[in-house]
Amino acid sequence: DTEVTQTPKHLVMGMTNKKSLKCEQHMGHRAMYWYKQKAKKPPELMFVYSYEKLSINESVPSRFSPECPNSSLLNLHLHALQPEDSALYLCASSHSGGNTGELFFGEGSRLTVL
Amino acid sequence: DAKTTQPTSMDCAEGRAANLPCNHSTISGNEYVYWYRQIHSQGPQYIIHGLKNNETNEMASLIITEDRKSSTLILPHATLRDTAVYYCIVRGRGSTLGRLYFGRGTQLTVWP
Question: What is the mean pLDDT of chain A?
Fold first, then answer.
């Protein structure tokens, strides 16, 4: 199994809603990532988890709250978002430590904030 | 991590080789060159990476110049399914885990 699975594929939410994006991998990877991608722009790194601990937060606003309940799962909790947060949210995973390894990306969750 | 420069767009005829250049003139000795691609509305896909020597896998070949200031990704027989944005990324061994920074990339269009 070389897949990273993201759910939901599409999400529409209001600015007062609370929702979550989910990501799952069963490749035994110990590093997981969230990226944000706006239309016609490259992906931007948001968070990195290594061995289920948050190791990188790229100064992301607190309305985005990541969570790594176990080594296979990564969540992104969303609260009080703004319309400009509408984007494709990509999850990725990689083997821990060896940073010459590749990142495996999911297909993304497309978020629309009304 | 060093920055990269790529052409904004390129075209290629189906069945011909696609040669995608990348400049990374500030690359340091311990930094690798990675290539990813992103087909429309999908997640990025790893293609290949290298340090000094040329590399080849089932998807592509990577040619790195001797001074390592530039590289070329070669898709030997491009197909319509290779139409995508191709990202050249420089990443250091030992650099902070996960700091894979994407530049603007090259939009490759393969035409019949």
Answer: 91
pLDDT digits (tens, 9 = 90+) for A3-36: 999 999 999 999 999 999 999 999 999 889 999 9
**Min distance A91 CA to chain B CA atoms (Å):** 9
B45 close to B33: Cβ distance less than 8 angstroms: no
The torsion angles phi and psi of A2, rounded to 5 degrees, stand at -115, 35
What gap in Å lies between CA A96 and CA B19, rounded to an integer?
32
Task: Looking at A55-109, list the stretches that DSSP marks H as alpha helix, in order from N- to C-terminal side.
Answer: none
Closest-approach residue (CA) in chain A for B40: A40
- Which residues from chain B sit within 8 angstroms of residue A99, using beta carbons? 91-95, 97-98
Inter-residue contact B28 to B20 (CB < 8 Å):
no
Contact of B60 with B74, CB cutoff 8 Å: yes
Nearest-CA distance B5 → chain A (Å): 14
A67-88, pLDDT tens digit by residue?
Answer: 999 999 999 999 999 999 999 9
- A92 and B99: CB-CB below 8 Å? no
pLDDT: which is higher, A102 or B47: B47
